[in-house]
Amino acid sequence: MNIISSKDISKEFIENIFKRASEFEERTKVETRLIASEQNDIAKGKILATIFYEPSTRTRMSFESAMIRLGGNVISASDMKNISSSKKGESLKDSAKVISNYCDVIAIRHNEKGAVEEFSKGSKVPVISAGDGANEHPTQALLDFYTIEKEKGTIDGLKIVLVGDLKYGRTVHSLSKLLKHYNVELYLVSPELLKMPEEIMSELAGLKIHTTENLSEVISEVDVLYMTRVQKERFENPFDYEKCKDAYIIDNEILKSAKKEMIIMHPLPRVNEIKEEVDLDSRAKYFKQAENAVYVRMAILEEVITNDGLRITN
Amino acid sequence: MNIISSKDISKEFIENIFKRASEFEERTKVETRLIASEQNDIAKGKILATIFYEPSTRTRMSFESAMIRLGGNVISASDMKNISSSKKGESLKDSAKVISNYCDVIAIRHNEKGAVEEFSKGSKVPVISAGDGANEHPTQALLDFYTIEKEKGTIDGLKIVLVGDLKYGRTVHSLSKLLKHYNVELYLVSPELLKMPEEIMSELAGLKIHTTENLSEVISEVDVLYMTRVQKERFENPFDYEKCKDAYIIDNEILKSAKKEMIIMHPLPRVNEIKEEVDLDSRAKYFKQAENAVYVRMAILEEVITNDGLRITN
Amino acid sequence: MNIISSKDISKEFIENIFKRASEFEERTKVETRLIASEQNDIAKGKILATIFYEPSTRTRMSFESAMIRLGGNVISASDMKNISSSKKGESLKDSAKVISNYCDVIAIRHNEKGAVEEFSKGSKVPVISAGDGANEHPTQALLDFYTIEKEKGTIDGLKIVLVGDLKYGRTVHSLSKLLKHYNVELYLVSPELLKMPEEIMSELAGLKIHTTENLSEVISEVDVLYMTRVQKERFENPFDYEKCKDAYIIDNEILKSAKKEMIIMHPLPRVNEIKEEVDLDSRAKYFKQAENAVYVRMAILEEVITNDGLRITN
Fold first, then answer.
1. Structural domain of residue A170, as residue ranges?
2. Contact B269/C90, CB-based, under 8 Å?
3. Which residues of chain A does B308 touch, with a Cβ-Cβ cutoff of 8 Å?
4. pLDDT averaged over chain C?
5. N or C: which end of chain B has fewer CB within 10 A?
6. In chain A, % of residues over pLDDT 70
7. Beta strands of chain A (E only): which ranges?
8. What is the CATH number of the domain that holds A261?
9. Residue range C168-183, pLDDT digits in tens
10. Rounded to whole angstroms, how far apart are CA atoms B113 and B133?
11. CA of A232: which chain B residue's CA is closest?
12. Looking at the structure, do residues B14 and B61 belong to the same domain, yes or no?
């Protein structure tokens, strides 16, 4: 069982993950971070390999922490790009054939779209995507939805706005592919240059969608504000960047027009697209999102390791 | 409870750490490196994150070894500088808010003064400094004092000489801030260019202090010789370097004028400031210092994790 | 007990390693990767440090996986070259004196011949070579022989061809030094420029040896085909490279003239010297070789840790 694309994830799988993640979250609180014996046995004697062709400390560490909290072990290659075998021109499939002898499950990040799937073809053990280029980041999508459900009590019926770089942001792409399971109203806010690609739009067919370049037009209507960063490097013309960047910055002023119960999310790291003053606002949930990463990845690893349950395909 | 500056460390805390470190040392010897069951339970189910913005294998590994010998687990970012999130401009506080979800205690090294304290403001879990720029290295100071006490039986009443780069050496700075708890006579030996900064000197008010550029003037008087390296890069004028470098090299010849019971210390790595011939001298304790790193860091981690004890503030 | 050169490894040691590796292999299959309690206790409370001055994910990970499967723990420096202490000019012996305080056994890779032995002089704990420059890779040699014995039932009496870069390939060098224990017929196939060095040839005195530049001349006669890669960088004249490179590529066509029971080996990574089509041939054993790495390194680590057994010297 691999977890490579959000689009292969079933509603049943999602619900099972949320149930277990919530149990892990509760237990962690009760036990003030002490791992219960049951929890500790789930991955006993198992090894997770974290294989990152592109460094990402937060994603890697949350996977490793999740595995350890399940009682398992970790081996790690945090910077595969500079490793001799990849430099020597070994194929991804060959790398997978070799590395999968040394572990029981692999979490892999790669900078190129499709590389995770290619790698999985050579692996003897389950492969979990930790992101491939601008393409997918399915475990991030799951923890994003988990956060929404925990904070709002439900996902169905919500109005969700995705803001910023919708073209290259793999987070919003993976998240979008899960939306088909829910009855939500979607707002897409981005500069023309960074708008949601057609292939993702086609996944969203059936949902009520509003698109605009202007966040202030829609912020008062939504229940979930999902921010991503607009990177200067994406623009060919610096003037284009200057023109739009301020339209995608969240501060206390713009939040005055938002609902009292709206939640603010961000996959992090943020730079200046959410002002630090907003951290004190009770609607800010982006650090809670980062905490949820552990519970959700514990549930995903458990599912993949025990493999006794639900299929991820519909 | 954070361990960020030597100046916040109380005498009571030091004494407790020394007592426990000594117990860990004894037990390690008796059991020929086998970890006793009690010892093995202290950090059971806990995770140490080692976050190094500046690589330092020896300091990182001794922390990790200490955590594992207490029965705990480790996740590691050994080269944070090159990680995407720091490059993207995430604040230290944000990094701490995220990473502290994935562990129970953090040991952090940073190349900039004050960075560890800034990081600690965002952390949900205890933060232990593993050095920040030329500023502090409190756990090194504790293991240095532990070594002195073990080797000399006491610290009070000793004559201690600090030699070499007293301006940029964070080791001697952190060590100096602990000296207020003891009644020692201090000798500061360095080239004018690398003399102890005023702010540290003010911490030492109350101690009897001798300063000189000439080690041979004082070596016969002292009980502890604490060497640090004089780096060529610190000098604007290469001629200044050439002039003073030989005055700060320890060999068998210069040791003839030293006391028979004097001990020689060095935070390591050494290059040529202590000749290899000195390693055979029974007064050489710098490798014993490196060994003590594990026992002292075990005691510090235990203190921070169990957190049931003494405050580090006076 | 150190494992530094194949030439110090006795027949008795090899046989013991093969017996235990085979037991680990069997147990792993039966338990579908679950570690038995007995197995899990062999390295309990022990720490392996993997110290790689030259990155090698596959070798490092297989050592780490082996240690964890024995119930032990791992600390790791996967890129020592860029670490401050080596850059500052610390000697290998000093590094060993310090690092060996933090672990119970060290697996070390270095890019320079002799560096592993130099390092071992400072270490308090057993040192296992994970390769030093073009010189040695004794644990690879052991797993290569293990693979031959498992696949062919015996080593004595076999005809073995070593193909490719016999000058710089440390794998074939270490392997050659073990051959003295066996009665084999050896074929050496390489371009003149990359032929086996004289010092290795003298180790092989007593064996029947055929040398040629032409693989097709001998492929029909051999029982074991051991491929290594011919790297373009080794040639001063690109024309020399072009001339010989195709003579050392294995595809289905050339395999038609090989024995039905011949086995194909490669230390990996391979680039194009074995075509991917060959992977489907039942004679292809190079990925099985990579799997065997774990079992053999488990046996080696067990031997070194328990240290209750056979000497590696004759």
1. 139-289
2. yes
3. none
4. 90
5. C
6. 92
7. 47-52, 73-77, 105-110, 127-132, 159-163, 185-189, 208-212, 224-227, 263-265
8. 3.40.50.1370
9. 888 999 999 999 899 9
10. 5
11. B88
12. yes
